[in-house]
Amino acid sequence: MKRLLIAVISLIAFAACTDSFVDINQNPNQISDELLKQDFNLVGSPFSNMIFNLNGHQVEEDLCADNWMGYMGTPTDFVGNVNNTTYYIRWNSFWGREYGSIMSPAKQVIKLAADNKLPLFATWAKLIRVLAMSKLTAIHGPIIYSQYGTTANSILYDKESDLYPMFFKQLDSIQTDFAANKAYTGFKKFDPSAYGGDLTKWSKVVNSLRLRLAIRLSKVDPAQAKTQGEKALSDPAGLITTNADNFINALNGNKIPVAQICYEWDDTRMGALMESFLIGLNDGRLSKYFAPITNAALYADHPSVPYKGVRNGAYIKAKADHVPFSKVNESFQTVQTRRNFTAAEVAFLKAEAGLRGWAGAGDPKTNYEEGIKLSFADWGAGGVDAYLVDKTSKPINYVDPVDARNNFTAVSTVTVAWNESDSNELKLEKIITQKYLNTFTNTLEAWVDYRRTGYPKIPVAAKNDSNADWGVIPAGESIKRMPFVNAERTGNTAAVTDAVSKMGTGAKDDIATRLWWDTGKVANF
């Protein structure tokens, strides 16, 4: 817990430092503006840090969506085993990360780019903002976007139904700028991704992001979703369709968080849902994601497969009980990059778009199988051909050898092989389940899909500590959103009240209020 508190304090300090980014760059004891203007340093240097902060760390990911979606489980009884993982909010810091480390420096970049006649850097900064804020709104709902940077005493939030048209309009402008400057090389030295500043590849991110957001709206606003999805599918710049084009960014010399939390702090382990799906489906990615264990008593329920996970929202009596469970694969110890958008995800997006009848999406079966193949190749897993034709393997029940209160019977009976005679609902369950299994280490999108579609079918948290403090999650249901941060509740109170009113009749700033695109409708077609 001490390490967790240190991480939170460091993040706050880090965000505060970023807020004064321009002042730091103008410090005469460091480097002058004139030197920074050389080779576009003044506008280019912030991008590495902005892109780094598109993702979070322990309190933003591991103790939130990583756990809620069962990718990882904590062996640690944080705050007496009453915390985010059991639906009682203790930590809520992604908001500060995105505003302090992305929105604030992006605003400065856009101004500096205008002052120095470097408009493409402003375009790039706008894309990073959309990438970041499309994540943040998926966590909280209404956010401060169009009014960001105003000096009003109360800064109003944009409601979700207004945010997405803004995102799409900005993606239009961004794509136009990139398309007109394909040969531009000014980003090269500042790009922390594998793209090396190549605008033709960044253009594929634009289209892929548009498709992701269009699919997100497919139930709440099918007309807008179809229009935007088809625009993404037909744009000549194309989508991320090969692993060579995956949007993977450097972590500025840092180890990928899941490895640090697992190996250095012993605060996270393989999730029980991963055990249920990956072992049950005979999935070759199991050994690429996680490390085997040696104590056979811990995996006696499947003695030939030496892995064991921790239940989402588990009952934890003592940290030592679950620390012997499976860590992430040892190879993650040397990983200093993050997957932000993969070709496999795009293939699954296209598969769902095809089910929904969107022009240009292609055949759902072809895209579904291509997504699995791309995922296996991306993670270096074998056996994909046998996996694709497996009609019988299903997720297994979970047994916690330490505490039976964490046991569960598999909720899903999904298999892998595609069957054209299946209903669209079952086909969608297959697509989303495989999309879920692919997005290990990028779990927010899985939480979005789960709230939006009900897939993958997974058990809710074993221990439900929700109450009136942060909102009550009824038995058998799961967390719907994160509340607005306390700094906004106390310092921007009127705007928070207005934001809640924009979430619909009866909405509250709690964890039980659904976001706009989370319609609550069981049927997806």
UniProtKB/TrEMBL annotation:
<protein>
    <submittedName>
        <fullName>SusD/RagB family nutrient-binding outer membrane lipoprotein</fullName>
    </submittedName>
</protein>
<keyword id="KW-0732">Signal</keyword>
<dbReference type="Pfam" id="PF12741">
    <property type="entry name" value="SusD-like"/>
</dbReference>
<dbReference type="InterPro" id="IPR011990">
    <property type="entry name" value="TPR-like_helical_dom_sf"/>
</dbReference>
<dbReference type="InterPro" id="IPR024302">
    <property type="entry name" value="SusD-like"/>
</dbReference>
<feature type="signal peptide">
    <location>
        <begin position="1"/>
        <end position="15"/>
    </location>
</feature>
<keyword id="KW-0449">Lipoprotein</keyword>
